[in-house]
Amino acid sequence: SLKALKAAGKRLFVATSKPEVYARRIIEHFDLDQYFEYVAGMELDGGRGSKAEVIGYLIDTCRMQDKKRILMIGDREHDVLGAKEQNIPCIGVLYGYGNRQELEEAGAAMIKESVEELHDTLV
Fold first, then answer.
1. Could you tell me the pLDDT band of residue 47, with boundaries at 50, 70 and 90?
2. How far apart are the C-alpha atoms of 2 and 22, rounded to whole Å?
3. Which residues contact residue 63 at a Cβ distance below 8 angstroms, ignoring those fewer than 6 apart?
4. % of the chain with per-residue pLDDT over 70
5. 111-122 burial, b for 16+ CB within 10 Å, e for fewer?
6. Helix (H) or strand (E) holding 61
7. Where in 1-123 does DSSP place strands (E)?
């Protein structure tokens, strides 16, 4: 769970292709903002239009120096490809919108089928 990851000392962020202003509202609405240090997304005018740009913006904004300590978790190929463009690994998850073939072909570092399986890997 997000709570367990945070308790384990993990720093959590959101990198989304959705407009940042709306993504923040959604995160706050579901009371998830307590877990995430920062929510990065696309600009309303279309800026930061690719996942790689959003990830790069997040890394720069939050001053993450060591990319070896960053791991993307995503459910679609653009998550994996965006992470690869930023030279960070991505774990593909099958409990979202993507499927195994899409994530494998994009080059996910590993694929997890459930939240529990992902949790066991991260903690």
1. confident
2. 21
3. none
4. 100
5. bbeeeebbeeee
6. helix 51-61
7. 13-19, 38-42, 72-74, 90-93, 110-112
Pair of tokens at residue 32:
């998830």
Asked whether residue 123 carries a pLDDT value surpassing 90, the answer given is: no
- 42 bridge partner residues: 19
77 closest CA partner among 107, 120, 45 = 107
User: What's the Rg (C-alpha) of the chain?
Assistant: 14
For tokens 């072909």, the residue is 105
CA dist 61 and 76 (Å) reads 24
DSSP 88-103: --EEEESSSS--HHHH
Does the pLDDT value for residue 18 go beyond 90? Answer: yes
Band (pLDDT 50/70/90 cuts) for residue 1 is confident
Joined together, the tokens standing for residue 23 give: 């993504």
